[in-house]
Amino acid sequence: MKSKLFAIPIISMMGLPMAFADHDMLLDQVSVRGTKTNEILPTYPSVTSYVEAKEIAETINAVDTPDVLKYLPNIFVRKRDSADYTGAPIASRIWGASYSAKSIVNVDGVPISNQLFNDNTYGTPKWYVTSPEEIRIAEVMYGPYSAAYSGNSMGAVVNIATKMPTEFTAVASMTGALQTYSKFGTNDNYLTGIAHVYLGDHTDRLSWRVSVTHDDANTQPRLFATGATSSGYPWVKKDGTTTAANKYYDGAGSLIHGVSDSVNFKLAYDLTSELKLIISPGVWFGTQDARQQTYINTYTSSTATSAYAFGLNQEHYVNSIALQSSKNKDFTWELVGSNYYYGNNLQRWSKDFNSDGSMKTSGAGYIADYHGTQWTNVDWRSNYRYSDSHILSFGAHYDYNKLNSRVADVASEWSTIGTNGGTDNSVSRGVTETRALWIQDAWKLNDVFKLTTGLRAESWHATDGYLFANGANGVSAVTPHSNYKAVSPKLSFSWDMQNYWITTMSYGHAARFPTTSELYSVSSASTSVGTALNRRLKSCHRRAVLNLKVLIHWS
Known about the structure:
Elements: E1 4-12, E2 48-52, H1 53-59, E3 75-77, E4 90-92, E5 104-107, E6 110-111, E7 135-142, E8 156-162, E9 169-183, E10 186-202, E11 206-218, E12 223-227, E13 233-234, E14 248-272, E15 275-294, E16 310-325, E17 331-350, E18 365-369, E19 374-387, E20 390-410, E21 423-444, E22 449-469, E23 483-496, E24 501-512, H2 516-520, H3 529-537, E25 541-554
């Protein structure tokens, strides 16, 4: 019979409950003895889980990339509906879906985690960068136990490695779904369709692939609004009583028609027998048109569901370039640079509606513009192999994160409004930068014991901060408290108790610095902008974690 693996948290300062498993339970698609998503990346010091291409193809109905993770333990991706292109954050067993900055997602060493926000809407990973057909392995490390990753890893690190074709490959697929939905005054059918094409080839020194995906989705309501209007749909509590202010459902909101198009290209070229160049550009176009449905036969700005009708147009670009050394040497390294850029990101809310509850394309409303928002990462990673049982890993990291957000009141055709159109309602701008050096030593002392130690030193800096809110004075200078330094030690000790038990105790100190949106976003019109900025600059988040895990293996 196939060997089965599962992990039980035994002692945790997080207050995690103890979990037990029945011997009749089968988890064939999950393994917890770690593998490597990339030979250049340092060895994981703590317990990991992973799923490989074979299991993805045979056991997972992976409509899109987030679905690849859905059967891995202690990890969850929240997808509300088929058009949730920007709202699929990761939740770990320690941090929920509202803390996007407390997990890291990489594809081939390139971060697709949103570096700018810490929430469950704007801060979600950019999943379109790869598709399920391209994935070789997806691996999860739980907690901030590796010096190779910043304090954002305090929840989890997801490393996705893709595969390059070894011969000419062509794949085409189509997926369709029809949903019938009936609740309160809403009764409708919602259709979704996904088309995907993948092409790739390999010659003597060159391999390439291109992936194109088109997604057209219609969704059920995400919420309902309640009120005291007598013509609404009656709302009766389970106990048979009602409240005066919420006697009726006035209508449904956020019935979304979403269209997503992505094109991703990857090229790998062997410059020499020991050096490879990898180039990966990609672009994503996303639109969402959300309408309201009223149960009281009027479409006005006073309707409770009006805030849930909107239009969203997005055009995002991702580019990365990497140099990799030969993986068959004692000393291996890679240099990776990447940039994610918001070429267009306009969202419009209107005060006027058509007879079907959709927004009019002209008239009063307001618009949120994120054009120019971006983040850039540069990482150098290396491994030096003293022997098969002793590996020293070290590297350097730099990131640049820029937020450029403007909300304006407008009174005309919204699609023609440029970055200077309308009247400022709020403006949020700012930059953060992080520089880091890290080192990690993994030493298998003998067949039983393995010791991993690490240290990460970081320097964080915030500049060019500017806030403007509802007529308040803007602040263009950052306070003296905008620089932080942190040193984060890591320690992991593993005891292989032969055949049946592996015990791993890991300690990690994590320093997570504020994101640009946490620093510079306008949260309250009544708050002094200068006071708010000064307070947020002092909010360097730190968390120490001690976790003892036991891995049980039986056959």
